[in-house]
Amino acid sequence: MSVIALLTRDTTVLAVLREAALEGDHTILAVETPEALSEQVRRFTIELIILDLASFASDSELLCRRVRTLPRASQSALLCLVSGSAYAIAQALDAGADDCLRRATLNARELAARLRALLRRSQRVAAAAPLIIYSNERAIKLNGRSVELTPTEFDLLEVLSQQPGEYLTATQLLERVWNYPPGSGDPALVRNHVRNLRRKLEHDPDRPRVVTSAHGRGYTLSVDAQRR
To answer: What's CA 14's distance to the chain center, in Å?
Structure first.
């Protein structure tokens, strides 16, 4: 069974999705606010997220980027429904969408085909080995690939893995990783090590999906991790 989350303010879009999903074994979680979507992502393992950006035209790009930084959503496939302009499509793709459809011409047949393609992609990602942290050996594997980390990078990743889905501020990380007294230490130290960690873990460090961040909240590990 695949779980699909839909963010829209338009009941017509929900009806088209339900028709498109008839041939598959899908559970649809329909919400009307970004906050409700965040809650669903936190509670469930979601293979596909559909954003009706045309319902949120004023801040559609920001919304797309925000969803991409949600803990546990980094490996979900992301389909955006946009207005008809090529600019809107380019914006969504640049903000992290895997695919786009024009909402004005939305129909169940094309949507069903896109669902099948995106869910296959999501299932391939899910089938890959998750992040495995070998605490005794101080080593890791990401999707079956060994990655060499410095001692501090390993400590940083291990601390993040202890609270999956929760954001840790630079101040908290300075205390837990570097053992600085509360309120001391330079946040730039955290930023530099996160940047180096992303260079080793991320397919595209400029669009991180493993170690993600949110302005004012800090950093989080956005993939499931096994600690051995």
So the answer is: 22
Q: How far apart, in whole angstroms, are the C-alpha atoms of residue 157 and residue 79? A: 29
- CATH 3.40.190.10 given to domain 2-127: no
pLDDT digits (tens, 9 = 90+) for 108-157: 999 999 999 998 877 665 555 478 888 888 999 888 788 999 999 999 99
State the Cα–Cα distance between residues 42 and 94, nearest whole angstrom: 24
The model's pTM is 0.61
Q: How far apart are CA 108 and CA 216, in angstroms?
A: 40
3-class SS at 84?
coil
The hierarchical CATH code for the domain 131-227 is 1.10.10.10
CB neighbour list of residue 103: distance below 8 Å, 6 or more residues apart: 13, 52, 54, 81, 82, 83
Q: Which amino acid is at 217?
A: R
Residue carrying structure tokens 């920001």? 62
Q: Is the pLDDT confidence value at 185 over 80?
A: yes
The pair of structure tokens assigned to 10 is 């338009």
